[in-house]
Amino acid sequence: MTFSDLLIPGGQRADSVVGDDALLRALVSAEAEWVRAQADAGVLDPPLAARIASAIEQAEIDPEALASGAEGGGNPVIGLVAMLRRSVAQRVSEEASMAVHRALTSQDVMDTALMSVVASALAGCHEALGRTGDSLARLSAEHADTVMVARTLGQHALPMTFGARAGRWLDGVAAAYRETDPDHTWLPVSGGGAAGTHRAALALESMAEDSALDMSLGDRLGHFWARRLGLNGPVADQVWHTRRRPMIDAVEPLARAAVACAKMAGDVVISSRNEISELAEPAAEGRGGSSAMAHKKNPTLSILIRRSGVTASRAVGALMESEALAVEERSELAWHLEWEPIRTVARHGLIATSLAAELAEGLIVDPGAMTRNLNLDGNSPASRDTGNSADQARAAARRWDTAKEQS
After folding, report:
1. Cβ(40)–Cβ(224) under 8 Å?
2. Rounded CA gap, 209 and 219, in Å?
3. Is 208 contained in some domain?
4. How many helices and strands in the chain, by DSSP H and E?
5. What is the pLDDT of residue 29?
6. For residues 324 and 99, is the Cβ–Cβ distance under 8 A?
7. Is residue 6 part of a domain?
8. Percentage of the chain exceeding pLDDT 90
9. Average pLDDT of 150-172?
10. Which candidate among 51, 214, 272, 399 keeps its CA 20 to 30 Å from the CA of 6?
11. CA dist 83 → 76, 166, 175, 343 (Å)
12. Alpha carbons 72 and 375: distance in angstroms, whole number
């Protein structure tokens, strides 16, 4: 039997991107494309590189043995390289197997594979945020004049419109939509070699054909590797084995996306309370039930979105701490501490945005309840000045249209 982690409801929405199978595919792809990049850079015969890369992609990987063996070297790349070289030796030649992982170190492959996972997560979040934004733009326009009471510090404040509140949700989603656009993010490969000096790559210089690119061989290999993987090339002459800002910058948009969705979800949790009843989540079979109280309809979607927003933001904090712990040219602790937080941010970014799209698309708005709650203050209709709430709602919808056009 296979299933997602039972302690992460909604996790199945992200498994195809961040699960172990997805990570293993990213690791194998990183190794295969590195071989092809060697041919691109002129240090490996192209037909031979194609055969080696094919043998890598056809390798039989034992995930359990790989996971168990990772204990010996501290990471799964060491065992994976041995399995891939064995496949190449069997399918091509023993000599050809030495091109596998040549001039790389384990951290290069792990970091680059994780960047590929982050790239897929960004694409998934971006698509889900687009759906959410479309729904919120519709709600903002439809309810630009729907009067409700604003609440500050948990208490009734002044009249406003629901369209304005939805517009504020929308602005947060729009910002996250722009930040998660894979075409506008910097996702670099990592190719510094054993101590970040490119020493092994430079040793191949005599084998390289002339290149039109004005780069060292190490940077040239990184450029072609990135192009093969759909990532960005490394910044010239910069190695980020212990300068971890590139990874933090890559995952932060995923956390901000989850947080933007959590803001909306928090408002829905409050507004769906029985004594307020201004909003309700879309109904679905099996959703919102209680094991002990059949009458309950819990705001489960919103609860899980808020959980993911908080979890993702905390995981970014853990990554920041890891950067502070990084030492010398390879950390004995900080790098290993990053792996789960990276996957956590990606997983919960995907969960939050996917659930938020479903929530926004089916959100039930009750204008009658909004009027009833507003009347609790004894305000007459004539005194319900909502300021420029209607204008704010319509402006948010226009800003969303602009954000989509620019993305």
Report:
1. yes
2. 15
3. yes
4. 14, 4
5. 98
6. no
7. no
8. 79
9. 96
10. 272
11. 11, 53, 43, 24
12. 68
Expressed as residue numbers, the domain containing 38 is 11-406
pLDDT at 384 over 80: no
Task: Identify the pLDDT of residue 263.
Answer: 98
Residue ranges of alpha helices (H) inside 199-244 are 199-202, 217-229
What is the average per-residue pLDDT within 233-245? 82
- 177 Cβ neighbours under 8 A, 6+ residues apart: 126, 129, 130, 133, 403, 404, 407
Alpha-carbon gap, residue 335 to 326, rounded angstroms: 7
DSSP 365: E
The H or E element containing residue 113 is: helix 106-142
Q: Determine whether 283 is exposed, middle or buried from the number of CB atoms within 10 Å of its CB (0-12, 13-18, 19+).
A: exposed
What's the pLDDT band for 1 if we cut at 50, 70, 90?
very low
Catalytic residues: 290, 330
Model confidence over 106-117: pLDDT tens digits?
999 999 999 999
User: Could you tell me the CATH number of the domain that includes residue 97?
Assistant: 1.20.200.10
> 247-271 pLDDT, tens per residue?
999 999 999 999 999 999 999 999 9
- At residue 49, what is the residue type? A
Total domains in the chain come to: 1
Residue 51, both tokens: 């055969």
Which of 182-186, 204-208, 277-281, 290-294 has the weakest average pLDDT? Answer: 290-294
**Token pair of 47, please?**
């037909």
Burial class (CB within 10 angstroms; exposed 0-12, middle 13-18, buried 19+) of 188: buried
CA distance 260 to 175: 9
